[in-house]
Write a structure and sequence with these properties.
Strand content: 5-15%
Helix content: 25-40%
Oligomer: single chain
Structural class: alpha/beta
Strand order of the largest sheet: 2-8-7-6-5-3-4
Mean pLDDT: 96
CATH class of the largest domain: Alpha Beta
Order of helices and strands: HEHHEHEHEHEHEEEHHHEHEEHEH
CATH architecture of the largest domain: 3-Layer(aba) Sandwich
Bound molecules: pyridoxal-5'-phosphate
Length: about 400
């Protein structure tokens, strides 16, 4: 299989620095894998962050002071966020209701803690990223699963509403959806918001993937916050910089709160006013630079990712026993491997061991009960690495008796 040339120098094969990644990239990636294993695992790019981010960090560090920041965050960051989400996503939230926070993951745990009492139910998609289930459970809540088609990402609004009980307090949305890559349609967002409004539910609205959208087939991202304010009065939107700006280790994120009172509740529950945790000023400066000056980089990245997606999906769909559709957003592919007749955990384990390529198994721990029969493959790497990873998967599959 030949590899197509990549012209953007920021995303060519040589732009991936394995020496550094092998020392720094954890969370199932290069630094955690045995020698020689290619990790197509956690959704974290193999490319360095945009220059604007690196320069902002260097510039801040040159000042030499790393003093405490304001408990509610730097106004530079909050104003930049308010301005950028308004211009790019039609989200109208004043800077005073932007809460900087150290990761989208932390924001999810914070929200679950604020809105759920022990025993309260929260409706989450299934499959979906493990953080939804974990954050609900950490707050003593009970996750209730709304099935999502693992190939298309489609779900049924009537089914979702049928899951509402007197104990339901929250519905959690992942848009674009990890792991299926579906970009929710405006009518789906509207439908969820109407259900939430009818039953007086909070919406945990995770839009961390909203800048990795391919826009084909007319699917563009629409934010839940762009709906009418009476539908989003209890919508809390979470965004993190890990995915679009390749800065996962900086743990940069923010929460958009619908009103002053909710903002105060979140701020108090975060313990940031007591100096416990929060987003460090240097990271807020870096994230501000990303949002101000990083968009041309993101555009180039998405262009590269689109080609990676097309290449990987076309190959995977031809592998015997594998089902795979192209994601509309995100840089992960959720591939059906149920035909192999063994668990996804065993497939992932054997692929890592025998083929030296690591993927994320569709186990309940990673995605909920609906993830079984699938593996997730991240393609935010160079063409060379992706090609080698897919070659290894293909060879491994061809050696399985069931499929030859
Ligand atoms: C949907 C979703 N939400 C949240 C996160 C966590 O992001 P962060 O790195 O900001 O904690 C991820 C990471 O994969 C994700 O896919």
């Amino acid at each position: 299989m030949t590899t197509a040339p990549v012209t953007d120098p920021r995303f060519v094969d040589g732009a991936v620095n394995l020496d550094i990644l092998q020392r720094r990239a954890y969370n199932h990636r290069w630094a955690e894998q045995p020698d020689g294993v290619i990790p197509l695992t956690a959704a974290d790019p193999d490319f360095p962050a945009p220059p604007a981010v690196c320069e902002a960090i260097v510039e801040y560090a040159r000042g030499g002071y790393f003093s405490y920041g304001p408990p509610e965050g730097l106004s530079e960051f909050r104003e930049t966020v308010s301005d950028v989400v308004s211009r790019r996503k039609g989200i109208s939230v004043p800077a005073a209701r932007v809460l900087p926070i150290d990761s989208a993951a932390r924001a999810m745990f914070l929200m679950a803690e604020v809105v759920l009492d022990p025993g309260d139910q929260a409706i989450i998609f299934d499959p979906v990223d493990f953080l939804f289930k974990r954050s609900v459970e950490a707050a003593g809540g009970v996750p209730v699963f709304c099935p999502v088609d693992p190939r298309t990402g489609e779900f049924d609004l009537d089914v979702l509403e049928s899951l509402v009980t007197p104990r339901t307090r929250m519905v959690a949305v992942c848009n674009p959806h990890n792991p299926t890559g579906r970009v929710l349609r405006p009518e789906e967002i509207q439908g969820i918001a109407e259900i939430a409004a009818r039953h007086d539910l909070w919406i945990m609205n995770d839009e961390i993937w909203s800048d990795i959208v391919y826009g084909d087939g007319g699917t563009s991202f629409v934010s839940m916050h762009a709906l009418s304010p009476n539908l989003t009065a209890k919508t809390v939107t979470i965004y993190g910089f890990s995915k679009a700006f390749a800065m996962a280790g900086l743990r940069a994120a923010f929460v958009l709160l619908p009103d002053e009172n909710t903002y105060r509740r979140f701020l108090a529950a975060s313990h940031m006013p007591a100096t416990a945790g929060g987003l460090s000023p240097i990271v807020q400066v870096a994230a501000s630079a990303a949002f101000r000056d990083g968009w041309e980089w993101v555009e180039g990245f998405v262009h590269h990712l689109r080609r990676q997606r097309d290449y990987a999906q076309a190959r995977l769909a031809r592998f015997p026993g594998v089902e795979c559709s192209p994601p509309e957003g995100t840089y992960v592919l959720f591939a059906g491997v149920g035909a192999f007749g063994i668990s996804s955990e065993e497939i992932a384990g054997r692929m890592a061991e025998e083929a030296k390529v690591a993927v994320v198994p569709g186990t309940s721990a990673f995605f909920g009960p609906g993830g079984e029969g699938n593996v997730r493959i991240c393609f935010a790497t160079s063409r060379e690495i992706l090609c080698e990873g897919l070659d290894r998967i293909e060879n491994w599959i061809c050696h399985q008796k069931e499929c030859v």
